[in-house]
Amino acid sequence: MTYHDKHLPQSGQQTGASRRDVLVSVSAAGLTLGFVVAGKAQAQTDAQDDAIRPLNAYVTVAPDGKVTILAKAPDVGQGVKTMLPMLIAEELDVPWEDVRVEMAPNDPKTYGRQFAGGSMATPMHWDEHRRVGAVARAMLIQAAATAWNCGPGDCVTEPGAVIHKPTGKKRTYGSLALACATVTPPDPKTLTLKEPKDYRIVGRPLAQYDTAKIVTGQPLFGIDQRRPGMLFATYVKAPVFGAKVASADLEAARAVKGVKAAFIVEGHPDAFAPGPGNIGQGLMPGVAVVADTWWAAKKGRDRLNVSWADHPTSQQSSKGYADKAATLNAGKPQRNLRNDGDVDAALKGAAKTVEAAYAYPFLSHANLEPQNCTAEFKDGKLEVWAPTQNPEPGRQLCAKTLGLAPEDITVHMVRGGGGFGRRLANDYMVEAAWISREVGAPVQVLWTREDDMQHDHYRPAGFHYLKGGLDAQGNLVALADHFVTFSNKDAIAPSAGMSAAEFPSRFVPNLRFDVSMIPLGVPTGPLRAPGSNALAFVFQSFIDELAHAAGADPLEFQIKLLGDQEVVGQAPAAYGAGRMVGVLRAVRDMSPWASRSTLPKGEGLGVGCYYSHLGYFAEVCHVGVSAEGGVKVKKVWVAADVGRQIINPHGALNQVQGSVLDGLSEALHQQITVANGAVEQSNFGDYPLMRISEACPVEVKFLKTDFNPTGLGEPALPPAIPALTNAIFAATGKRIRSLPLTPDMLKA
Amino acid sequence: MAYTLNVNGKALRADVDGDTPLLWVLRDTLGLVGTKYGCGVAACGACTVHIDGQAMRACQIPVEAVGKAKVSTIEGMAVHRVGKKVQAAWTELDVAQCGYCQAGQIMSATALLAATPKPTDAQIDEAMEGNLCRCATYVRIRAAIKRASGQKEA
Predict the structure, then answer these.
(1) ipTM of the complex as predicted
(2) Minimum-distance CB partner of B91 among A205, A212, A655
(3) Domain that holds residue A543
(4) Closest residue to B90, CB basis, from A77, A215, A224
(5) Host H or E run for residue A89
(6) A230 interfaces chain B, CB cutoff of 8 Å
(7) What is the pLDDT of residues A645-667, one digit of tens each?
């Protein structure tokens, strides 16, 4: 059977229903236009393989012409619930106003890998999703051609209808939906997609599909989910990660009005590192308090007086890490990552050398919606409503932890109040699942803000000991970095690594990257632009130092360093040097870079550029620094190259502006510190985020280059930080080598 | 104990302990989930509601302190003279990214514009400083307030 309808034929097969029964149900429900990509096996499910999947059941045309398009990947504010259906709607050729968007079920067998991460939604689906729409359109054309007894070549479409060219006759999509049941879907690869000049939806600034619900406060987020008979839970975990409960006054918690249950959870032995495919933690040890309102659960929790068992990492501290990094740097590096040319000889022979030590702190994701999940365990089956970025690994984590078959678990993707990588982990999901099973009722687990900040998987801190050498002409001829990072069970801790291809490797003839590691008892993981969000600060700042040492214009120094080659290296580590030069020139020309010497005292411009998540970004920051060391960012200019097409300009601009301000917020304010094995910060008082008075204008220019479009959730962030710190150097002569900024660093 | 609250012009009854914050009465007892929990310490503004027209953080107001005051939430803004203009501006400029903070932002912006129909940039910053947006949509928040107040959007 080439035509495959996920819902209807399957139920028909199960009940032995006839084709006619199926058609009757089709006419009642409308038609789901699904299809199988020729040559691809239906059963392929490898979650790591990002190749085209067998496609199925994205598009439903109702008899009234309304079109439902399923959004495959979860939305945590990056806009994919709108952007992905736009791609389908464009080639289907329907009016966007007639499109209803619903979340797809978590079903990787049908949809392929479903996740929100790596700014991958655009590059993974740009071609595939347009072909989903094109196939559906071709089926509607075929159905019309059959009805008119003509060839499909005699037919064209206008939004929502097929037109018979010779006569001008017209059939609406809604009137053709039923007839599509007998149409064999064409091979999507054979279809010709629209020319960009004919786009009606792609390239149009569209509001997010959920905007109406957002502005009116309708239920939408994880925390808004409700089930009949649902209870609310809070879950207390040890400040030292993974410590077990020694004792807890469960009776005191149970005595609180409204509390239904209070119990200790042993946790899963693998909770700290729950295995391949899972990011972050699993079911950590703790105490659950369940009540008829969350406030009652919280009151019960506040009476628990939990004491925690000793734990091997309870002596760790941020100061200890810094001391250890210095010790490790004084010794022989543990590993070599890359060694080009002869760095030591080149440094010795250099006309000028620069040495510097850089450091950056742990960071928390601080999603504004604290981690939460709603779970209902009933009759051996589990159903969860989770604001997750990564539903399938959550399902697998629940299966493993609760001893269930994955087929007995259903994960509903609900909108998350911010992701930034935090919700790639599913610890909140497995907690809700476990607690629901324990109490035999639907449960919503909601973390306090303090829980959220103290039980994150953090952006790893890091230390870099750098040396650079310039020749007599000011060329960068040698660079060495001893990177002191963190380990977990003797391997580099999650998101704490560095690539051997990290810029400026391959652009400096003599270059060495060494790595040493400090054992870490704090969980780490991806934060928006993982790796890049720290390494851009380090390398782009150090390159700025070298440019100044060479007496060169820092922006022109980078252009010179990038050289004449369009592309350096091979995929997947190819670096589009020409594209980076393009954005550097663009940001130079759109900003007042050329006239920066005329700025008043205490003001400066800085530049940073970075390639990450397939996007090329160069940014110039204009900053003013007061005599007291106060920093005011006045404006940021961004030149971006993410290919030939911006799919939704509204969302694209919002992502870039938000990413830039997010990066500035990290640099200006944020750090997580560790003492006695635990995180010291607990809420927005000691972990401040940027507020509106600090938000500067961010001017963005998208260069259109002849490459397939790529994503925008992350790549604008990394260069914002060195653009800021390099601007501070230009304004004050003070070089920022550790984050976050403090007024002490900058006092005149 | 039973409390009768005036929420969005309706008398609603909640049988809860008097120390329960208004936020949780709205969300868990009255089913009005538009008001969001973010920090519990009045540091983020996600739970902003109006008490007699003033923007307040519902996480800090025990239900026993509400009395006969008029409580307005995001769910009531569609029929609020200023609130509906603010919602329209938020929609036209598509301010939101994740959207979680935006109910609180709209409540603060509405209170601002009700008191100060044509706010300056400084007045906007002052009134909105208590509302965090983790996605940092601040540039659009400022523009949407300008638009709702009929001023040029910078």
Answers:
(1) 0.98
(2) A212
(3) 319-362+458-746
(4) A215
(5) helix A80-92
(6) no
(7) 999 999 999 999 999 999 999 99
